[in-house]
Amino acid sequence: MKHYDYLNDFVNIEKENFISVFKRYPICFVKGKGNYLWDHNGKKYTDFLSGISVCVLGHCNKQICKAVKKQLDNLLHVSNIFYNESQLKLAKKLNELFKLASKKNENSKVFFSNSGAEANEAAIKIARKFGNQDEKKRFEIITFNNSFHGRTLATLAATGQKKFHDGFEPLPEGFKYADFNNFESIKKVYSTKTIAIMLELIQGEGGVCIADKNFIKKIESFCKEKNLILIVDEIQTGIGRTGKMFAFEHYNISPDIITLAKAIGGGLPLGVTIIQNKLKNVLTYGNHGTTFGGNLVSCAAGFEMLNQLDNKKFKYIRKISLYFFEKLNELKQEYDFIKEIRGKGLMIGLELTIEIPNLVQNCLEKGLIINMPKPKVIRFLPPYSIQKKDIDFLIETLRIFFDKASSSLP
Description:
- By secondary structure, this protein is of the alpha/beta class.
- The chain has two domains: 3-60 and 311-407, Aspartate Aminotransferase, domain 1 (Alpha-Beta Complex); 75-308, Aspartate Aminotransferase, domain 2 (3-Layer(aba) Sandwich), CATH 3.40.640.
- 39% of the residues lie in helices and 18% in strands.
- The protein contains 13 helices and 17 strands.
- The chain is globular.
- The N and C termini lie far apart (45 Å).
């Protein structure tokens, strides 16, 4: 079947059978290995997106696939009203890592779900239940403009971007938006009904915007002063993306709640909400639940994922990140329309002062997968196994289209 006919069939099938919420590129991937993907025509692509920070140890990682197959051979699913070893092993491992990172000599607890939105939903419920226990019945949560926390109604309301709200009003009440990296703006929206502050340390969908260290330390102190819950959304930044297990380690803070998804499942659906000891009794039997959350196969993949993230891997992420930034800075010297390069580890944003139409599509035609969460921001979320030759290919490809854009400027 010819390339056009093959994709044309897909387009027609989707129109007839799918709710059209995804704007797809005209490619069908059929194979992945390491840092690369292949389409149905056998064309190879270098992946700088890793499924939006999901396949962080590369596509079809051998050890993860082996762990998944082993679990599949034994058991696919049982209800959460029974114990299972796959969940217990992962929960114990995550709590050990969180305890080490938060530098607190106390135990944490986890709740497993299926996605980042669900992990955040659980965090919101825990914070509100905690606030409902005092005489002021506190329920308001402060989040930040330009943030993204999910697409359920509650996490959509928590998201500080109006474009995601349009058409879904009225949204759940109780969310106030402050300005990112502006501590005074928090004070303006704080009230006696405030129970929590929820934020990303790097706003991924917001364009890879990084929280200032002093700003985060002030938030932590403010939360302690006002008895607020500090929720850190680590769905995109967690599990090694920034060169440490959790991004909050860069800030020397100890959040009350963190949320995880994307990378933790090793390519399978998995969300995690981790809470500090002081919140351990907030939710009781029947307050929350899930049918598929903590699926045995996903947990097996997650456990193997964590086993591979050792100090050697973190050291490599930090080392290859330095090379990546070096090459991007060289590119910045060549083109005046490159405004800023920002990020940590292998979560990097390149902001332009101009829009380059069809840049993602044109890169795909050259065999390169990139992403643009904003019209002038390119986001790079490559697998942790990305190599210098892959980065060189990225730079060479971008240079082709930057040269064209430069020549068309007045």
